Each structure stands twice: as structure tokens, then as C-alpha cells.
Amino acid sequence: MSKGFVSIVLALATGLLQLANAEVPAIFILGDSTADVGTNNYLPDSNITANYPHNGVDFPFGRETGRFSNGLNTADFLARLFGFKRSPLSFLAFNGTYGIKKRQSETEEFLSKSLFFISVGSNDIMGNYHSNYPIPKEQFIPKLAVVYEKHLRNLISVGARRFGIIGVPPVGCCPSQRLSANGECVKDLNDQAEAFFSTMDTLMRNLNFIDVKNACCGNGTLKAESFCTPSAKLCSNCHQYLFWDLFHPAQAASKMVAFKVYSGEPEYVTPINFSQLADAY
Ligand SMILES: *[C@@H]1O[C@H](CO)[C@@H](O)[C@H](O)[C@H]1NC(C)=O
Ligand SMILES: *[C@@H]1O[C@H](CO)[C@@H](O)[C@H](O)[C@H]1NC(C)=O
Ligand SMILES: *[C@@H]1O[C@H](CO)[C@@H](O)[C@H](O)[C@H]1NC(C)=O
Ligand SMILES: *[C@@H]1O[C@H](CO)[C@@H](O)[C@H](O)[C@H]1NC(C)=O
């Protein structure tokens, strides 16, 4: 019963290219059927699609677009909120070739400014719940988080920096799940969705500054036993460090401080901030 609902569209990507938008050059939407804008139709191994009536009855041009919806979905609305004028009708499956088209540094820059929305988890939770041998939630949710973290770190390693992680909604209240529960919500599924949220919350907080202890460049314990000289060891990704060397903050931390000083609230800068100071003359 759940199988029909569970459409497995893992790692779908929708690149909404609008290079004119310098701040956010692209939004990548990685998700399951709730975020699919029709990419599914073009995947050779995909056999769960929605490109037929009555899907899309309320779509602006009455087309069946491949969305599991009467009209638009969250991916569409997010794209609009971020100023992308077109719906993600044109999409490209993110298959790694994008990086080859541009030089690596340009690609990293592009990816670091892009937004990555990830909307997965429902299928995993429901799939496990309905399997013949479900893994208890106390073990399953942490397992899920480990896999999730691995994928996030992969994205970080190619340059992604801005993530929007969509939690799992109370899937126990989906019609498909209520069907087997006399019309009631399945509490256990909703509990798992909540547990997933708090696990991801902790994970994301820890990913923000991956290393707040060690210097990026230096030698010895905490890389704090020598200055950053040509012979010192250099971390592979400075963006993940709070400290550059044994004394000084790395760029990301300095940027944060500058922004706070320039336009921060009184808790960071008092009695007025630097932008107000500039305005005073
Ligand atoms: C989709 O394909 C897989 C194997 O490729 C098959 O096991 C499954 O039953 C198919 N699902 C549907 C809904 O056709
Ligand atoms: C990736 O996309 C490019 C451009 O559309 C295409 O030529 C190539 O065959 C694709 N590669 C794979 C592995 O799907
Ligand atoms: C750092 O350690 C390496 C050996 O791991 C050594 O060759 C180098 O001279 C050291 N540099 C400093 C500045 O201590
Ligand atoms: C700090 O600067 C910003 C930008 O100029 C300004 O809008 C804001 O009101 C200031 N914040 C405070 C708390 O004064």
C-alpha cells in the first residue's frame, strides 16, 4: 500500500540557472517526489511519474508537468521567492558534467553562492515503518542522519555552502497512512518525523563551523605550535575553520565579524553600528 506513495527519486537536482542573479546564481533542489518538477520523466530508470491527468489540472497552462500536484509545488514557490521568474520548467539532471564546463575555481564560486534545498526523508521513514523487519526508530533515525551527513559533506567538498534542509512533515497524517489506521494519524510516524527534525537540527549546527578548535595552518597540537609558514601544514578547506593560524580568525569568521560590526544589532555593536556612523556625516 505504501509502495504506491513512495516514489523514490533520490538525488534529483533542478538547476534553476539565471546567471543574472549575482547573489544567488542557482538553486539546486535535491529531493523526492514532493520537490520533483518533472525531472523524473526523463530518468531512464524511473517508473513512478506524474505526467498524466489529473496531475497538473491547475497548472497555468493546463499541462501535466510531472509534478505530483494539481499545480505548483514547494520547489516552484521557493524559486519564485528567491526572485527566479520562471518556474523550474527547464531542468538539468545534475550529473557532474557541469563542473567540467567551467574552471574549477569558477565552479566552486558558483556552487558556494548557490542555494541547495534538500527535501528527503519521508520515503525512508515510511519505507522502514512498513517494511517486514522495521529497524526501531532509536536506531533508524541516527542511521539516516549518518547517511545524510555523508551526502552533505560531499556537497560541501565540491563547494556547496548554503543549505536549506526541509524537515519531514507529519507523514503519519497522509491519507495513505491513515487508511490503515481507521482514519487516524499514525502517531509513531509523526514521532519519527519529529525525531528526524531534531537530529538534523543538531547535525546542521555542527556543520556550520566544522572546526572551531584547531587552526587551519600550523604544526603540532591544534596546529598551534608554529606559525603559518611555507613549511607548515595547511588544512584542505579553510572555509570550515574558525581559526586561520594559532592566533587569527579565518576569512569566514572575519567576514561574519565585519558584517556584524557594519550592520549589527546593539548586542554586537553599541551604541550605533558602522553603517549608521557613516550616515552621520
Ligand atoms: C519499478 O521498477 C522496479 C524495477 O526496476 C520494479 O521492481 C517495480 O515494481 C516498478 N514499480 C512500478 C510501480 O512499476
Ligand atoms: C550528463 O549530461 C551531459 C549533458 O547533458 C550528457 O551529455 C552526458 O551524457 C550525461 N552523463 C551521464 C553520465 O548521464
Ligand atoms: C611542520 O612540520 C613538518 C613535518 O610534518 C616540517 O617539515 C616543517 O618544518 C614544520 N614547520 C614548522 C613551521 O614547524
Ligand atoms: C545597523 O545598520 C543597519 C544598516 O544600516 C540598520 O538598518 C540597522 O537599523 C542598524 N541596527 C541597529 C540595531 O541599530
UniProtKB/TrEMBL annotation:
Task: Give the domain of life.
Answer: Eukaryota
**Gene Ontology annotations of biological process type:** lipid catabolic process
The cross-references to Pfam families, in alphabetical order and at most eight, read:
Lipase_GDSL (PF00657)
Q: Which GO terms describe its molecular function?
A: hydrolase activity, acting on ester bonds; kinase activity
Keyword entries, A-Z: Hydrolase, Lipid degradation, Lipid metabolism, Signal
The residue range of the signal peptide is 1-22
Q: Which InterPro entries match?
A: GDSL, GDSL_Est/Lipase, SGNH_hydro_sf
Q: Which PANTHER family match?
A: GDSL ESTERASE_LIPASE (PTHR45648:SF17), GDSL LIPASE/ACYLHYDROLASE FAMILY PROTEIN (AFU_ORTHOLOGUE AFUA_4G14700) (PTHR45648)
Indicate the family of this protein.
Answer: Belongs to the 'GDSL' lipolytic enzyme family.
Protein name according to UniProt: Kinase protein with adenine nucleotide alpha hydrolases-like domain
Source organism (scientific name): Hibiscus syriacus
